[in-house]
Amino acid sequence: MTDDRDPSATAADGFPPGPGGHDPEVLRQRALDALLTARARTATLTDCVDDGELTAQHSPLMSPLVWDLAHIGNQEEQWLLRAVGGREALRPEMDGLYDAFEHPRATRPSLPLMAPAEARAYASDVRGRALDILEGTPLHEGGRPLERAGFAFGMIAQHEQQHDETMLITHQLRTGPVALTAPAPPAPTDADTLPAEVLIPGGPFTMGTSTEPWALDNERPAHRREVAAFHLDTSPVTCGAYRRFIEDGGYTDPRWWRPEGWDMVREHDLTAPLFWHREEGQWLRRRFGVTEPVPDDEPVLHVSWYEADAYARWAGRRLPTEAEWEKAARHDPATGRSLRYPWGDTDPTPQQANLGQRHLRPARTGAYPAGRAPSGAGQLIGDVWEWTSSDFLPYPGFVAFPYREYSDVFFGPGHKVLRGGSFAVDQVACRGTFRNWDLPVRRQIFSGFRTARDA
After folding, report:
1. CA of residue 72 relative to chain centroid, distance
2. E strands within 252-384?
3. Domain ranges of the chain
4. Helix/strand number for the chain, H first, E second
5. Judging by beta carbons within 10 Å of its beta carbon (0-12, 13-18, 19+), is residue 267 exposed, middle or buried?
6. Rounded CA gap, 352 and 342, in Å?
7. Strand 282-287 relative to strand 412-419: parallel, antiparallel, unpaired?
8. Helix, strand, or coil (residue 310)
9. Residue 219 to residue 54: CA distance in whole angstroms
10. Residue 353 and residue 346: Cα distance in Å, rounded?
11. What is the pLDDT along the chain (455 residues), one digit of tens a residue?
12. Angle at which helices 305-314 and 239-247 pack, to 10 degrees?
């Protein structure tokens, strides 16, 4: 394989490496804030239901909520208390019990899991010790790799937020009384005047990062990619547009489907996105315990890669590649730089993106004009994860760090890449370079898409 890493990007990606650069004290405060934010969200997701709901398995696709709670504490103990702090193991017998690779989700309810009160106490004990370690750990450039720029603390904050997202998925799958509420996202201001698509000019750009302090291994290293000119949807595909695909026989016509996708449609008798159903001539959906009409102007949600790909074929278009998506989200043609986010180098604000479970739904298309990319494409960060056409593969020069099981074992054609985050993702685990991946059959995740075409 030719190594096409960009030599000019190894020292800098053309953008500052996060708030405060690599200043140790700024990063220490950033790590503290990220850890506290994640734990507050974990409490919101686990305190809103009783112990029976915490220990139940609401879907074989997901763990009991109490498993996630204890797993969060165990990972924090392993990486912050032991690996960074050099402390003795508090509960070494928990390592195997809460090993995600050793125990598939469907089998976790049969394990001798901690009870909710014990799991909460364990996670709280670990957190208090971890904050003491954070206070005394040097975060300077010359330190150990796990400590440098606070990487391990940022990694653990991201890990907890990722499990918070999976717990939110569990809340969406559970039945019973409403447990979570949130205000509606802001309304769009100029949706009627937005073009249907934008042109992304061809040429090279810097993909990935070598300097973002808390970027995970699969985002590294920064390298040059050549991308031909293409057109991209200005906004994610809406429920209304997807409904037209359904009504045109999209789920009954094998022309639009990959063979594996068509097999999935027939095996499970699929007729619409997950959580949709038709009643008295109207499409309804279930959203966190509430049944409501499907909103035409909101990005479609809970579709698999196969469904996204079939829609794109029906529309005479295609899914963008991962490189196309990142160029649209990060490249600034005026300067030639790759930005940290579509709007620039600053961290997201509530005016720029729908993140952090602030709202429990995507915003209507055309929202967040302050978050648009130089190309004019909007809602690239937040709202819905966006399927791309690309397999999850390593970048040239990839090095697994700090463990193979985060990325390396998933590389290959079995997993498809999603980009951009969703309303369920916190900003610490979402940036222009962040890569998510999943099986192409997955529908319970907060996934949508946008389409592209060659210029």
Report:
1. 17
2. 276-279, 282-287, 290-293, 331-332, 337-338
3. 24-173, 182-238+313-454
4. 10, 14
5. exposed
6. 9
7. unpaired
8. helix
9. 34
10. 12
11. 222 333 333 333 333 344 445 688 999 999 999 999 999 999 999 999 999 999 999 999 999 999 999 999 999 999 999 999 999 999 999 999 999 999 999 999 999 999 999 999 999 999 999 999 999 999 987 789 999 999 999 999 999 999 999 999 999 999 989 999 999 999 998 888 999 999 999 999 999 999 999 999 999 999 999 999 999 999 999 999 999 999 999 999 999 999 999 999 999 999 999 999 999 999 999 999 999 999 999 999 999 999 999 999 999 999 999 999 999 999 999 999 999 999 999 999 999 999 999 999 999 999 999 999 999 999 999 999 999 999 999 999 999 999 999 999 999 999 999 999 999 999 999 999 999 999 999 999 999 999 999 99
12. 70
CATH number belonging to domain 24-173: 1.20.120.450
Beta bridge partners of 413: none
Q: Which of 141, 184, 217, 165 is nearest to 38 (CA)?
A: 165
**What's the burial of 184, exposed, middle or buried (CB within 10 Å: 0-12/13-18/19+)?**
exposed
| Distance, CA of 36 to CA of 85 (rounded, Å) | 19
Tokens of 255: 């022309």
> What torsion, rounded to 10 degrees, do the Cα atoms 208, 212, 215, 219 define?
10
CA–CA distance, 140 with 145 (Å, rounded to integer):
10
Specify the residue for token string 């909101």. 298
Q: Hey, what are 283's tokens? A: 């499409």
> What token pair was written down for 449?
């898409």
Selection from 147, 14, 24, 141 nearest residue 80 by Cα: 147
Q: Are strands 452-454 and 290-293 parallel, antiparallel or unpaired?
A: unpaired
Q: What is the CATH number of domain 182-238+313-454?
A: 3.90.1580.10
Nearest to 50 by CA among 179, 163, 182: 179
**Dihedral over Cα of 94, 152, 222, 438: its sign:** positive
**32: β partners:** none
Three-state DSSP class for residue 321: coil
Classify residue 178 by burial, with Cβ atoms within 10 Å: 0-12, 13-18, 19+: exposed
The tokens 């763990």 sit on which residue?
63
Query: First CA to last CA across the chain, in angstroms?
Result: 29
List the structure tokens of 291: 């049944």
What gap in Å lies between CA 432 and CA 287, rounded to an integer? 28
In whole angstroms, what separates CA 243 from the centre of its chain? 25
E-assigned strands of 305-445?
A: 331-332, 337-338, 385-392, 412-419, 436-438
Provide the token pair at 247. Answer: 């009504």
